[in-house]
Amino acid sequence: MTIEPAQAAKSLWGPGELLAYEEALWRQPVEVPGEILEDVLIPARGFMRARTLKPGEVIRFIDVEGQQVPDVLLYDPTNLKNCSSVDNSVLMAGTWQLTTGHVIYSKLGQKMATITEDTVGDCLASGAFCTDSLNEMRYGIEGTHSCRMNLVASMMEYNLAPLDIEEGVFVPFMNVQYESDGSCAIATPRSKPGDYLDMRAEMEVIAAVSNCPSEHNPCNGWNPTPLRVIIYRP
Ligand SMILES: [Zn+2]
Questions:
Q1: N or C: which terminal CB in the chain sees fewer CB atoms within 10 Å?
Q2: Could you tell me the distance, in angstroms and rounded to a whole number, from the CA of residue 215 to the centre of ligand 1?
């Protein structure tokens, strides 16, 4: 197999070039309707250390280069068993296409967050996320980076083990094609550089975020890239 220059470009960068690139991304000005509390650049395949949002605060996921998905899991800080339930959210919304105006509910039925802006309109609302065992089933390769381990890392101060990460993950920008014959398949995201989704906390929530490292399917356009997360108070 020949490696195309475009695929190899970043891996051939010299010392410091990747860091300089990430720093330049992070320094790109961004405007939000409020006071910025946190501004986090998540490197390709990386994770954000979990942050606690107060009611009314907004978390914005920015797809920096386009075609990149975040995997987002919300927790009730008073009870970590009570995390986001995509099933509850889909049933309440009456659609699996959760977007502006829809609410992410907890397992116990509290309103955790409302999607207040979504410039793409695509998502995965099945609750699922990539794991090394799923990747081994699908691709025959063991030990891949995965959202499961990113979410464990994101929640490290809460001491969750891999099997504590529940299937309540919401995935903005993810493009899944559902056909009338019942089949479904992951497609390349339609998100472009700068597209974003805002979620406003409706109660105190812990937000755990994985920058999905999947690179063996089109979920991230075959090429995981950085994400930027802004937390702001409107
Ligand atoms: Zn993933």
A1: N
A2: 9
Ligand 1 centroid distance, CA of 114 (Å): 22
pLDDT in tens, 80-94: 999 999 999 999 999
Q: Which amino acid is at 132?
A: D
Separation of 129 CA from ligand 1 center, angstroms? 5
pLDDT at 6 over 60: no
pTM above threshold 0.90: yes
Cα of 8 to ligand 1 centre, how many Å? 22
169 alpha carbon – ligand 1 mean position (Å): 10
User: What confidence score (pLDDT) does residue 17 get?
Assistant: 87
Ion ligand 1: residue ranges with CB closer than 5 A: 130, 147, 212, 214
What is the C-alpha separation between 77 and 207, in angstroms, rounded? 10
| CA proximity to 195, closest of 22, 67, 24 | 67
**pLDDT band (50, 70, 90) for residue 9:** low
Tell me, in angstroms, the distance from the centre of ligand 1 to residue 112's CA.
22
What is the percentage of the chain residues whose pLDDT exceeds 90? 88
Centre of ligand 1 to C-alpha 69, Å, is: 8
Range list of β-strands (E), 88-226: 103-106, 111-118, 123-127, 169-172, 175-178, 184-187, 195-201, 205-211
What is the number of residues in the chain? 234
